[in-house]
From TrEMBL:
<dbReference type="InterPro" id="IPR002058">
    <property type="entry name" value="PAP_assoc"/>
</dbReference>
<dbReference type="Pfam" id="PF03828">
    <property type="entry name" value="PAP_assoc"/>
</dbReference>
<dbReference type="Pfam" id="PF00098">
    <property type="entry name" value="zf-CCHC"/>
</dbReference>
<feature type="domain" description="CCHC-type">
    <location>
        <begin position="229"/>
        <end position="243"/>
    </location>
</feature>
<dbReference type="InterPro" id="IPR001878">
    <property type="entry name" value="Znf_CCHC"/>
</dbReference>
<dbReference type="InterPro" id="IPR043519">
    <property type="entry name" value="NT_sf"/>
</dbReference>
<dbReference type="GO" id="GO:0050265">
    <property type="term" value="F:RNA uridylyltransferase activity"/>
</dbReference>
<keyword id="KW-0862">Zinc</keyword>
<feature type="region of interest" description="Disordered">
    <location>
        <begin position="246"/>
        <end position="266"/>
    </location>
</feature>
<dbReference type="GO" id="GO:0003676">
    <property type="term" value="F:nucleic acid binding"/>
</dbReference>
<keyword id="KW-0863">Zinc-finger</keyword>
<keyword id="KW-0479">Metal-binding</keyword>
<dbReference type="InterPro" id="IPR054708">
    <property type="entry name" value="MTPAP-like_central"/>
</dbReference>
<dbReference type="GO" id="GO:0008270">
    <property type="term" value="F:zinc ion binding"/>
</dbReference>
<keyword id="KW-0460">Magnesium</keyword>
<keyword id="KW-0808">Transferase</keyword>
<protein>
    <recommendedName>
        <fullName>CCHC-type domain-containing protein</fullName>
    </recommendedName>
</protein>
Length: 327
């Protein structure tokens, strides 16, 4: 929260979002000048090794960087017994990173000559036609397929093995609705990218907008927010841990605080050590709320047309059941 406060003062940063209740707390932000999104985490050494691993992939083959970028756009929508060890936070984060000797250690190095488009279409085809998400785990550390039985994971949805923390399922936070949403985008993307185009429709000013049209990829649906907080509509915490809930509670407590104490808080003076029964006052500005059903920020759940429609349908069905056969 303190880091988020400091970032909000930076003139080139927007959409500051602290996610403090995640396994690895982060602060997400948007950089206006570059148009890039980023996040900052503290005391997370595994993230450094993940970054080095991705940089190595990109250095081995320039097509990797392009494919990673395409996947980002789409989402907006060592073998052997004696493996060396590099321990970070209790995890073995070793990976072979000697690019000069890599060709002698990897016989298949440089043999793949497919274009970026062929690789991208092959990825979509693999995960929509060949890969069984109920039986297999998305894994980058071995060529052979890894099963959920081997991992003893019981998730019914997409399971992804962390490349370093092998006991961590990166897809554990996915719900059934989000899994269906992702698979629908992959299937529709397989159709769009796999169909030859002789002429692009005039309503698309750029080819990129044709291939990444959300009306086609997700059929106009927005990503489900069933895993978000029901108070503020954001992900990363549950309703009981929502900052907006704490703010309203602290605001109520501050109103009962003596005037002298309240003035000292407003002026930023140091307060004496507080007792357990005393409360701290948060002075952050309240963040906008959104509807839990449709995700709109223009109203909340009780004012949503979907909610009202379901209520009217419930009342109407109740009236039908109360009518007697004679009537």
């Amino acid at each position: 929260e303190r880091l988020a406060k400091l970032l909000r003062k930076h003139p080139d940063l927007r959409n500051i979002l602290p996610i403090t209740t995640a396994k690895v707390p982060i602060v997400k932000f948007y950089h206006v000048r570059t148009g890039l999104e980023g996040d900052i985490s503290l005391y997370n050494r595994l993230a450094l090794h993940n970054t080095r691993l991705l940089a190595l992939y990109a250095a081995i083959d320039r097509r990797v960087k392009i494919l990673c970028y395409v996947m980002k756009v789409f989402a907006k929508l060592y073998d052997g017994d004696n493996k060396p060890e590099v321990i970070a936070d209790g995890w073995n984060v070793y990976f072979f990173d000697d690019l000069k000797t890599l060709p002698s250690r990897w016989p298949q190095y440089g043999t793949n000559t497919e274009t970026v488009g062929e690789l991208w279409l092959g990825l979509l085809r693999f995960y929509t036609e060949d890969f069984d998400f109920k039986e297999h785990v998305v894994c980058t550390r071995q060529k052979a397929r890894l099963t959920t039985f081997n991992k003893q994971w019981t998730s019914k949805y997409i399971v992804i093995e962390d490349p370093f923390d092998l006991s961590h399922n990166l897809g554990a936070g996915l719900s059934r609705k989000m899994t269906n949403f992702i698979m629908k985008a992959f299937i529709n993307g397989r159709t769009v990218f796999g169909t030859p185009v002789t002429a692009f429709p005039p309503e698309y000013p750029r080819q990129m907008e044709y291939f990444f049209d959300p009306q086609v990829l997700t059929e106009g649906e927005v990503a489900p927010n069933d895993r978000c907080c029901r108070i503020c509509g954001k992900i990363g915490h549950f309703m009981k841990d929502c900052p907006m809930r704490r703010k309203s509670r602290h605001r109520h407590d501050s109103e009962r605080r003596p005037d002298g104490m309240r003035e000292r808080v407003d002026t930023g003076e140091d307060l004496p050590c507080r007792h357990k029964s005393e409360h701290w006052r948060w002075r952050d500005a309240p963040e906008p709320r959104c509807c839990f059903l449709c995700g709109s920020s223009a109203h909340i759940k009780k004012d949503c047309q979907l909610y009202r429609g379901s209520q009217r349908l419930f009342v109407f069905s109740g009236m039908l059941h109360r009518k007697s056969p004679v009537e």
